[in-house]
Amino acid sequence: MNHNRNWNVLCWNVRALNAVRKWDAIRNKVGETNCDIVCLQETKKDNFDAAFVRKILPATFDDYLFVPSAGASGGLLVAWKFVYFEGNLKFANNMALAIDFSSKHNDSLWTLMNVYGPYTLEGKREFITWLQSLDISNDEDWIILGDFNLYRYPENRNREGADINEMFLFNSCISHLGLTKIFLHGKKYTWSNMQNLPLLERLDWVLTNNSWTLSYPETTSKALIMEVSDHSPLVISISTDIPKAHIFRFENYWLLREGFQDILSENWFAHNSLIDKAKIITNKFKNLRAALKVWSSNLSNLHCKYLSNSATLGIFGGIQRLKIGRMELQVHLKRKASCPSGTAKGILEAKRCH
Known about the structure:
The chain is of the alpha+beta class. It has 3 domains: 234 residues, Deoxyribonuclease I, Chain A; 45 residues, no CATH class; 52 residues. It contains 9 helices and 15 strands. A 7-stranded mixed beta sheet has the order 3-4-2-1-15-14-10, covered by helices on one side. Strands 5-6-7-8-13-9 form a 6-stranded mixed beta sheet. Strand 7, helix 3 and strand 8 form a beta-alpha-beta unit. The radius of gyration is 35 Å and the shape is elongated. The termini are far apart.
C-alpha cells in the first residue's frame, strides 16, 4: 500500500439544490477538481437519500452525512468516496457538521468540519461564541472549512463599512482555538451580491490547527470561477507528501564557534503547546535546523577554505617534489660525467658510480 497520497476537497455554498443546472454544475466541478470529498453549504434541503445524491454527484461518492435545512435556509452535506475514506459523525448542529475520517491508504485519523455561519447579527455572535467553545485537541488533526459569513480584515471587502467589532471577535476566536488560515489562491473575494456595481467579500475560509499543519504541510486552497451561486467554489488540496528540502549537514566545527550554544538552547528548549512526544521532538529538530541554517549562513565557510588550502598545499608539495627530483638528477649527471669512460676500467668505475 502506498502510504503517501494526495486528495482534494470541494467546498461550495451552492445557495439551494433546487435546479438541474446546479446539479450539473456540481458534477462538472467534481470532475474538474478530481475531488474525493464534497462539502456543500446552504443546500436548503430537509432530507437527502441515495437517489438524490446520485443526481448531483458521481456514483463513486457512495457515503454521506447531512444536516437538514431550517425551513428555507441553511443545510449542510458532506459526501465522500468510501473506497478511500471511512467517516463517522462527530457532532452536528444547524451551523456545522463535523466528521471523524479515517484514511484507508495510510490509516491516519482526522476531523473535517463543514461550516455554514448565520448571516444575522445575532446569529453571528451566537456562532462565534459556540465556535470558541470547541475542544480541539493538539493531538488531533482538524480542518474547518465553509461559509463563515464573517470576514477578518477590512481588505476582505471591496468597500468601506467593515464591522470592526465583528472582525475582532472572529479573529479572537481563531486565535483562542490556535487555528491557522490556509492561504487562498485564485481570487481575493469569494462572495458577490451580483449587482452591476457589486459588493465583494471574503466569507469562505479554510482553517487548520497546528497538528494538521505538521501532518499535512502541503495543504492549499484555490477559489474557482463563480457560477450558479453567489459564492465561489473552493478546492482544497491535501497532501501527505513532505516536499524534499535541501540537504542539511551539521558541521562539527560549529560546536567550537561562538554563539552555537545560545542557538541550541534558545531553539531546543523553546516552549510549544504540543502534547504528543513524537511531534514534540520533531518540532524541536525542525526549529533547530531552521535556526542553524540562518546562523551558519553568517559564518565563513571554513570547510571550503580547508579544501581550497589543501589543494594549494598539494600543488606546492608537487612543485617541491619536482625541485628535489631535478636536484637529484643534476647530482646524478655530474657524478656520471666525472667517471672515466672508453676503457674497461672506466666502464667498471661508471657502474660503481651508479
